[in-house]
Amino acid sequence: MALLRKSKDGEQYTHVCGGSLIHERWVLTAAHCVPIREDSQTLLQVRLGEWNTTNSPDCQWSGGEEICAPPHIDMNVDRIIMHEEYVKEFAPNAKLLNDIALLRLQQPVNFSEFVQPICLPSSNDDDEYTYADYAMDIAGWGNTEHTSFGGSPIKLRAVLNALSMANCRKNYPHIMSSQLCAGGETMAGTCHGDSGGPLMYQLAYDDKENRAYYIAGIVSLGLAFCNYSGQPMIFTRVEQYVPWIMGTISANM
């Protein structure tokens, strides 16, 4: 998983959103996380291999021995590509349509045990297919309360259940087929700073001996005061954008 940081006018980088490494030079995130204007003075940086932002490197004790991961990697972004039909609308009944963007890194990433890309799902045009009842993971460094600032220093994780479109529309009548819903228990959900991060699930491969993470959604639209009520959140449905993702990467290598 990636941590997105921004700096404006030479100021110190600060955490703004999450993202997902999908290629050695490309990170997937939400369009509402990135500057809209081409002439914006805001610089974006992607941090990879991070867990606790207050420590470098991240270490833990096991069997009386301290084991440390390699230091995190900070990568500059040299290209931001938002979906051309992105609609930004923070208002009652907001839809935040096509809330997806790609970030091209200045240099390729060297994959390691601690820095790995997430898999893209197969493209699917079935409007009613929503991973219903799948157990999904979300993770991020977002705020732990809607009144707090600066986010969590440690990457946190929660488990959500994907909902059918019918159940989702009970809470969000205007949801589109390019979006999906997932919800969890009270006190488990996304908050400010988690936007752009992945909604993930695991699938077995290699005769079921190994498992890989796939990205189903991108954190897009939650509740105004963070999602601690158990009410579902809205995610950009990645499978509908796989052709756009692959085409954009191919045209901008």
Automatic annotation (TrEMBL):
Query: Which UniProt key words apply to this protein?
Result: Calcium, Disulfide bond, Glycoprotein, Hydrolase, Metal-binding, Protease, Serine protease, Signal, Zymogen
Q: Which residues form the Peptidase S1 domain?
A: 1-250
Q: Which InterPro entries match?
A: Peptidase_S1_PA, Peptidase_S1_PA_chymotrypsin, Peptidase_S1A, Ser/Thr_Proteases_Immune/Dev, Trypsin_dom, TRYPSIN_HIS, TRYPSIN_SER
Molecular-function annotations in GO: metal ion binding; serine-type endopeptidase activity
Keyword Amino-acid biosynthesis attached: no
Keyword Metal-binding on entry: yes
Family assignment? Belongs to the peptidase S1 family. CLIP subfamily.
Q: This protein is called what?
A: GH12397
Q: Which organism is it from?
A: Drosophila grimshawi
| Name of encoding gene | Dgri\GH12397
